[in-house]
Structures are given as C-alpha cells and as structure tokens.
Design goal:
Blueprint lengths: L1 E6 L3 H17 L4 E6 L2 H8 L8 E4 L8 H10 L5 E6 L15 E4 L5 H18 L3 E6 L2 E6 L3 E7 L2 E6 L3 E6 L2 H7 L5 E5 L2 E4 L3 E4 L3 E4 L4 E3 L5 H16 L5
Parallel strand pairs: 1-2, 1-3, 3-4, 4-5
Antiparallel strand pairs: 6-7, 8-9, 8-12, 9-10, 11-12, 13-14, 14-15
Helix pairs in contact: 2-3
C-alpha cells in the first residue's frame, strides 16, 4: 500500500487528481491510500511529527500564505524523504524547485494523462529503489540505517568517520573513506577532499577552494579533487535537466 498525499487549495483539483491516481493505480494493480490537504500549513502540520508517512506528495505551488516551494523546504528540513511532484499552473518556479529535490514538475492543463501516469510509475519505481538505497553504519553496538538521500556528507579524522544526515544530525563510526566510496558507488556522491565525501544533490555553490551545501556546511575542496568534483556535479545537473518539462 502506497500513501499518496495531494496538496492544493482548490477542491476541484484535489478531486480531479485523486480520481486520476486511483484510475492509474487500478490499471497497474497498485494499492494506494490517498489523503488530501487544502494548504501547505495543513500538510506540514500533519507530517511534522512523522515526516515519513507519505510515499508521494503532489504539491501545488501557488497557494495562499505558505506556498508549495516553502512547504517543500519545511518538509525537507524536517526529514521528509517523500517523492515530491510539483503540480502547478506556472513554470516560473521550475529552477527554484530544484532546491528540494523534486521528482518532477508538472503543469496543470498541459500534462497529458499518459505523462502523468509515467511520472507516477517513475515515483513508484524510485520508492522501490530506496529500499536498497540505504547506508548501514555501526559503533559500539549501535546500528544506524540511513537513507542515502538524507546524507549530506562524510568526514573522517583518524579513521573515525562522521556521517552528517537529516540536516543537523550526525553519527560517528570506524571505517575508511575507501570503504565508504565503495559502498556509495553510483549513488551520487563524490570525493571532494582526502577527508570528505559529499552528496552532489546538496551542493549549492562552488567557491575557489570549497563547496557550499544546502545545510549551510562549507566543505573544503582538495586541489587534486577539484576537477572530478566539478565534472561529477556537471553530470549530475545534466541528468536533472533531462527532467525539466519542455
């Protein structure tokens, strides 16, 4: 059973897309539970104590008071890892939307039912994949199983690795950067320094000898790693751009 949340301040829109999702789910033999919310405030309040309730969130942007972008930012900051799909009438926020790592940005009235279905199934596939996209670490008998997407970076000091996740949380364990690189191969991380591995999706700015992350952290760039970090980030952005609606 997949939990689908719809957030829009127009009731007719909520009804329309709830009906469409049910039709697609039945066609593809997928069980869903749909919940509707009429404002970003209502959605955030519902998820604030348990941000992992929703598998997929369809979120309008142009809403009164708390708009969809700000709602998504608050959700991400609270640890929400749901697949977010913006469903709105304006394309002017498409680049700003990247800050919250949405799966897709769809335009009402311009998105065909076929395309809507493809994106829905893509979200379901990514949820399945998340099951394997976990990082396991252990220290003194305490095990942590972390979603890879929640991890912003790793740093190491004398074989003690600190993993930074969910914005401000961290956990220490023994390992080597080489072992971690092997575990994270193909999962969107890059070695930025002999002591740091960074999640590409968290990078917001390049400085001369450092990168700035969405969490506010500033990670040093080792001289021998600058070229590979810039290339990896360029490849990452190119992949994201493939998902921008034309």
């Amino acid at each position: 059973m997949y939990s689908i949340f719809l957030c829009d301040d127009i009731q007719e829109t909520l009804d329309e897309y709830a009906s469409l999702i049910k039709t697609i789910a039945e066609k593809n033999h997928i069980q869903v539970r749909i919940s509707s919310f009429s404002s970003g405030e209502q959605l955030f309040f519902h998820l604030s104590d348990c941000p992992g309730q929703a598998d997929i969130i369809y979120l309008d942007i142009l809403m009164n008071q708390l708009n969809g972008i700000e709602t998504a930012k608050k959700l991400r900051n609270s640890g929400c890892q749901s697949e977010i799909i913006f469903l709105t009438t304006s394309d002017e926020y498409v680049f700003e939307a990247f800050d919250v790592n949405p799966l897709q940005y769809l335009l009402k009235g311009e998105t065909t039912p076929e395309r809507f279905e493809r994106v829905f199934l893509q979200a379901i596939a990514r949820i399945h994949k998340k099951g394997s996209d976990m990082f396991l670490c252990e220290s003194q008998g305490v095990q942590k199983v972390l979603s890879v997407s929640s991890i912003s970076f790793f740093e190491i000091t004398k074989r003690i690795v600190t993993v930074h996740y969910n914005g401000s949380e961290k956990f220490n364990f023994y390992s080597s950067m080489e072992n971690i690189e092997t575990q994270l191969s193909g999962k969107g991380f890059v070695r930025a320094h002999r002591s740091y591995i960074v999640n590409l999706s968290y990078i917001t700015m390049f400085q001369q000898n450092a990168v700035c992350l969405k969490t506010g952290a500033v990670i040093p760039l080792g001289v021998t790693y600058i070229k590979q970090v810039r290339q990896a980030f360029s490849d990452y952005i190119s992949q994201i751009n493939l998902h921008i609606p034309r």
